[in-house]
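Ticket reopened. Same input as before:
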Amino acid sequence: MSTEPTTTEPPSAVDLDDRRVRQKLGRRSWLGRARGRTVDRPLWRQPLTLVSLAILVLWLAVAALAPVLAPYDPLAQHPTTYLPPSGAHPFGTDELGRDILSRVLYGARLSIPLAVVIVALALAVGGVLGLVAGYVGRFVDEALMRLTDLVFAFPQIILAMAVSAAFGPSTRNAVLALVIVSWPVYARVIRSAVLTVRGEDYLHAARLLGVGPVRALRRDVLPNSVGPAVVLATLELGNAVLMLAALSFLGLGPRPPAPEWGAMIALGSHDLSKWWVSVFPGLAILTVVLAFNILGDALRDRIDPRYAKGR
Amino acid sequence: MTATTIGAPAAGRRRVPSLVRFLAKRVAITLGLLWGVTVVTFALVHVVPGDAATANLSEQALNDPSVVAAYRAKWGLDQPIYLQYLHYLGNLLHGDLGTSQQTGRPVLTDLLQYVPATLELAVPSMILALFIGTAVGMFAAVRHGRASDQVVRAGSLLGLSTPPFWLSLVVLYLFFYLLGVSPSGGRLSPQFAPPPSVTGLYTVDTALAGQWAATWDAVQHLVLPVLVLTCLTVATLIRFVRSAMLEVLQQDYIRAAYAKGLPRRTVLGRHLLRAGLVPVITVSGLAFASLLSGTVLVENIFGWPGVGQYAYRSATGLDLPSILGVSLFVALVYTVVNLLVDLLYGLIDPRIRLS
Amino acid sequence: MTALLTVDGLGITLPSGVPVVHDATFSVGEGEIVGVAGESGSGKSLTAAALLNLLPAGTSVTGTATFAGEDLLSLDRAGWQRVRGGGISMVFQDPTAALHPMLPIGRQLTEHMRRHLRLSKKDARARAVELLDQVRIPDPERTLRSYPHQFSGGMRQRVAIAIALACRPTLLIADEPTTALDVTVQAGILALLSRLRDETGLSVLFITHDLGVLSALTSRTYVFYAGRVMETGPTGALLSAPHHPYTAALLSARPHGAAGTGALRPIPGSPVVPGQAPSGCPFEPRCAYATADCAAAPPQPAPVGTGRLSACPVAPELEVAP
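Engineering reply: fixed in the latest deploy. New output:
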């Protein structure tokens, strides 16, 4: 004789036994709906993550194949200016008669690789500094913390604006500005990952056994930092695309007539009635950044959420 | 956790001097930070290939060396860097932030004019975002894993992925161009003159002057930019509130509260909220940072004469005193906000207050 | 002794479909302190949670549970709010985690009191002071204004007990209340519970994995393994002459349990993972006395002497020695 399942008050009072048990989920077949809540399924079975991966793959393909996919030359001007979306120009044309669809497609060749470069450089600089500071500690660590505080004292966009304007607006300087603005986050995250490992007893044990500092670094500290670094990098990729677009919107990024999405939005702001000039590049930014954010979020849920908070 | 027995001296007697020490330490750090800001900004502007002269003078003027020289002499740009810096620092200690090379007015005056405009946007946005963000974040945390939680997460990610300047354009297109219910930008419609300046906030000043039609007009101009800023800030807040509340929900004291027979609304409204507030306060500081960033881009679209616009013009014009003024102001705001955050911690969490 | 709480055939299945408690039958009489012994993962904490409906959403519970004549498992939300704290209340393992760090102790004592007992603020405070006296906390007035972190672990647990007693429940469920405390402090808590039982007729369901605590405090004990009741009986008799291989193994696994021999005697194998329990007796893979029949069907507790039940059909014949 069974009673109705009791309605329970506390929504997620999870018992320790229950948590261990939940790791058994996901054994159902691909086609069968995996039991249990979406968030507990492995990454590759969450629909949101799959969608975002698909979007990213799509955009990467676009970036690679833009010359093939684009119907027109992104820089070519036609007499048909300000054409609304139509058969010949699915995204319309801008004030100089350039095809917006082609410009949006080519824009991927700018935004995505540049974002990757920015993140890679910032990770390299910030990561090394954070590693050293966390490992060596004391004065070096203190100095790094003060330095990152200084950078954090400025809102990102204002600092990036200042640097870019100071060195003259160009693609290279925009990248430089964004690297300068974003390296501290990586430094902080890597440093805190290093600090948690440093406190671990097995590191002391290794040192006592004669493992040199560099080897200890490589064997123990580095693998522990990879997880949070990956999560951060994914999220920062989205941020880099947004910041790059913001800079070029302000005229401080890649010089015109480069088809950068932010610059295209700026052009569209000249005449509100011609909505298609701004809307499509904006949607491009939105989808790319959203995909990075969803992916980064899902990754963070897997890897300990404590690490991923940089600031 | 070290445990003091019940015989510990009354907290009140120890609290005041430690608060003073705490504040003194923070003030010292702030001053150090501000000094660092001046050094960095100064250095930055001087590493640059051009200078204010090349940025602000016309082509014609640039071709004439005597004009350039005169400009440089006027603004002291021909002096060695360290002299310029010392000169600046000296003035700073007298409360003089220098004169803007673009507007010709004292930077302090400029700031006093532009800052209230930004505050008029930032403060309502922050308050709205706090209420909405906390409520929705709690809601999503309580419904963890269910459909409504997923929707909230997706929505907040969407908000975070949206470029602020694009959202402003979209919103303007919808409400101004298509529906005609909103003004197109600026702080007041052309038929209204700015009110006599008391606070610098048009909504307040027009009310104080009894110009009710202008007040309503000013409010209408506020709606769209505040809407955009709120959306963006709410997105950040929801995520943090949600994860903070989720952590609290795992705690035994929530179960214990239910075990006492307390109704859900009490457990959520008192136990959950109070415990979750600490991280919420932290993130409010961060959210304020993103808000300030957002104003730069949003003010641009809405033609709002605030600090964001001022910063943009100063940066592109390489107007050193203005850049310095804005940087210092921003750094100061951050540190004040961080200070408030730390003080609020102490207020809410007795473990911090009474240690 | 009249039964205050009667649980018959309790079965708990988690939302994921994994069954964690099978056919558990136990009871607590008025003024009785009953022990529930078992390792982590034996289902004892979930059983306790089920009695207060503190299980994760979507858990299904079968069987019957009657408390003071009322059917617990058919209670609605209002019913549970009434029973929790007022009829049955609970003390958790970690007092630091179970007390809200940001609410003053006075608030945590009075908030449910005012609801359940309809007291005014003044009366509630007065009663709170009484309760703190009852659990022997000095300077109750100041305690009311203080916060949990200002006290030691033992004091916090006393406060937790005071909170649990605030609305005059008749049954207190103590889920490993002394595990997180020093041995010396432990003794104080046990003495307190004993005294409360003597003074107020409080019944206690005491969950623990510490056999020493069981013998010091409880009059009857249920031994849980893999979500089933393996054995039950008066505590003294149970621990000196167990009728189940698992109980015997637990006893001999204690470092000072083995009579003078040097080597430790752990139980071979590892505890059952919920959801992967073998059909038949769950202890069979680790049992030194298992027969072919043991793996066939899950055993039912059967009487093996006065007031004793054992789920092991083999044990009475084996005269298992501790």
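The interface with chain C takes residues 1-18, 20-22, 24-25, 35-36 of chain A (CB under 8 Å). Confidence is low (pLDDT under 50) at residues 1-36, 305-311 of chain A. Please confirm and we'll close it.
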